[in-house]
Structures are given as C-alpha cells and as structure tokens.
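User: What would this chain look like folded?
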Amino acid sequence: MAELQLKSWRFRAEREADWRRLETLLAKAEAGGAARLRRDEILELPLLYRQALSSLSVARSISLDQSLTAYLESLCTRAYFIVYGARTRLPERIARFFLRDWPAAVRSIWRETLVAFAITAVATVVGYLLVQRDPDWFYSFMDPGLAAGRDPLASTAALKATLYAKPDAREGLSLLASFLFTHNSQIALFSFALGVAFGLPTAALMVQNGGMLGAFLALFVSRGLGPQAVGWLMIHGTTELFALVLSGASGFAIGWSVAFPGARTRVDAVAAAGRRAATVMVGVVVMLLVAGLLEGFARQLVQDDLVRYAVAASMLALWLAYFYWPRRAQP
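Assistant: Here's the prediction, encoded as structure tokens.
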C-alpha cells in the first residue's frame, strides 16, 4: 500500500503542473469563449489535452487512487468540448443556421422537393376536377372541421362572406392562428417522421393535402368566386404550402435512403439523410409559424384582393430567393 501511494504521489507530482495549466485555460475559455484565449494559448490547449488523456490512460492502467482518476476524467471531458466542441456562441449559431445551414439543407433535397411539389400539384388538379364533376366528392377530400361551413350546401353569399369577414376581436385572430399552426405542424411532422416507411405515408399525406386544396378551389370557382378565393388562400398559402412541400421532401429523402442506401450501410445512410432533413424541419416550423400569423392576422385584416395577391407573391419570391439564390462559397 505504501508503495502504491508513493507511485501515485510521484505520478501526480510529475504531471500536476500541466493539469493545472490546462484547467486554467479551460476556465478562461468556458467563462468567455475560445475568443478570450491568446494565439499561443490556443496552440497550447490541444497539447495539454493530449497529455491529460495520456495521464488518464496511465492512471487507469496502474490503478491509481480513484479520486485522481475521476479528476482526470472530468478534466479531459471539459477539454474535449472546448477542443472539438462548438466554437460559436448561441447568437452566432442561430445566425449561421438561418444564413447557411437551413438554405443549404433545402437545396440539398431539391429533387425530393420537386417530387413533393409534383404529387401535391397532381392531387390538387384531380381533387378540383372530381369536385367540379360531382360536388359530393367534396366530402371525400375536405375535413368538416376545416371546412367550417364552406361546403356545397352553403349559399354563394355565405361563401363570399367568409372571404371578407372581419373578426370582432384580436383574441379570435390569435386563437385561429394558434389552431392553424398546430394543425399544419402536425401534418408537416407526420410527413417527415413517416418518411422512414419508404416515403409511402408521406406521399399519401401529400395527396391528401393536394386533394383538399383542389376541392376547396373547385367549390368557390363553381360559385364564380375563384379569383377571390385564391387571393384569400394564397396570402398565407405560398408560405404554408411551401413548408408542407419541404416537409414532404424531407420525408422522401429519408425514405429514399432506406430503400437505396448505396455504398453505405442502411443505418449510416438514414442517419445522414436524417440530419439534413432535421435541419430542414427546424426551418419548416418557422415557416409554419409565419404562415399561421399570416392566416390568423393578415388574411383577416387585409380585405383588398390585389393586396392579398401582392402579399402572396412577395412571400413566394422571398422564400425562393432565400433558399435558391446563388451564394458565395463559404471557407
């Protein structure tokens, strides 16, 4: 026992100065970020980290006292997150997400985005034609709760009134925005999460959304209210539908990696696709929040059709430019 204690004391005496130096640099970096370290300290940090790892390995192999081993484990863990962890603060990380990560992730799934858009567009046309031919098809596509009385049994005057009705209180607008945000978020998350089943449930959700849109438009066109309904819908629809298409594209990206992993293992392929898709989905939630605010506030407060079209076109142009405008390559 005395020999073991002497060995532990010598081991600690020979290396403790380096451990303390590493601890000092870590405390400085943790207090104000790596930017507080001087150039020579930044170069010194990884060297001290490797020395601490070596000391930990020796301490474990020769069974030194547990308190020393626990100290070195804690020190190496702290150093790992400084040396290899995130080097940006939260505001910088958020800025990087919106300026680089999210647009890059959206561009990386452009093929899946086209597929999701095509499925939605075809389903919209099919839903429109079926309801135009037989109004009873409306009930096969439209959820009665979402229709809220806008169905083939409603009069033309009642349908027109829903396009220009002004809520009496701001509270009503807030509740509507909250409901729509929750509903659309659920659809988006299901489209993303169910993509792992080879993308088939995602495709079904895209068909459902497109059919609902086509049925809605067919109803109002049959009453001579087509242009008004499009303006009423698209003031938020260009944002909302874009978000839902991106969520579907994220699901398709995962489904494709499950079906065709390529040279990688299926787990690795799904993990890589999942990271890209998850980045897209974080942004999709932001888009749905914007769409909910437009639907719950702007659509009800803006009564002029031309202004509604202008807002819709502006939002679509904004999103397209944000995602697909060529950017300078980052170092």
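The CA atoms of residues 171 and 177 lie 10 Å apart. If you want, I can go into more detail on any region.
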